[in-house]
Amino acid sequence: MSPEASAGESMDADFTTCDLYDADESLQSLSLQLLNLGGRVRFTGRIRTISCYRDNGLVKELLNSPGEGSVLVVDGAGSVDSALIGDLIAASAIENGWAGVLIHGAVRDRAELARMDLGVRAMGSNPRKSVKDGLGQIDVPVQFGGVTFVPGATLWSDEDGVLVTAA
Ligand SMILES: O=C([O-])CC(=O)C(=O)O
């Protein structure tokens, strides 16, 4: 696929990360092996971010607002001690037009998430909920797995991995 074709990426996700990387080796590639847990394995969109720790108040709030095809990157500090989304929050993300959620942390309700039309990548799962105090930050650059995720950058995710436009 040509870089011109990739510039017109859309909801139908007509891309592969391997082709994108071959066309542009300046793309950042995530080394962290996040599991594909959503029903939509191939997804792309503009990045929004949240930084939080075992508190998903902001995640719930943001995914309940218009996503306009964006991908929410949640830096949960790599904690898998409690889940940052489950099927209810995922359902509100779909209703609000989000393309996907990529979590440096855990989810719950895996069986449901696998059936939902949403991109979901995370380190793993935990049935324990997070608190909802709303502590954390929205739309700040976050860094993990060798990638800097800047709000407004583009992310592509498929079976092979995750690419992000240069910071
Ligand atoms: O509410 C939560 O913290 C996560 C959850 O169970 C859901 O989204 O269904």
From TrEMBL:
It comes from Nesterenkonia lutea. Catalyzes the aldol cleavage of 4-hydroxy-4-methyl-2-oxoglutarate (HMG) into 2 molecules of pyruvate. Also contains a secondary oxaloacetate (OAA) decarboxylase activity due to the common pyruvate enolate transition state formed following C-C bond cleavage in the retro-aldol and decarboxylation reactions. It is an enzyme of class 4 (lyase). This is 4-hydroxy-4-methyl-2-oxoglutarate aldolase. The lineage of its organism: Bacteria, Bacillati, Actinomycetota, Actinomycetes, Micrococcales. Homotrimer. The keyword Repeat does not apply. Its EC number is 4.1.1.112, 4.1.3.17. The keyword Calcium does not apply. Belongs to the class II aldolase/RraA-like family.
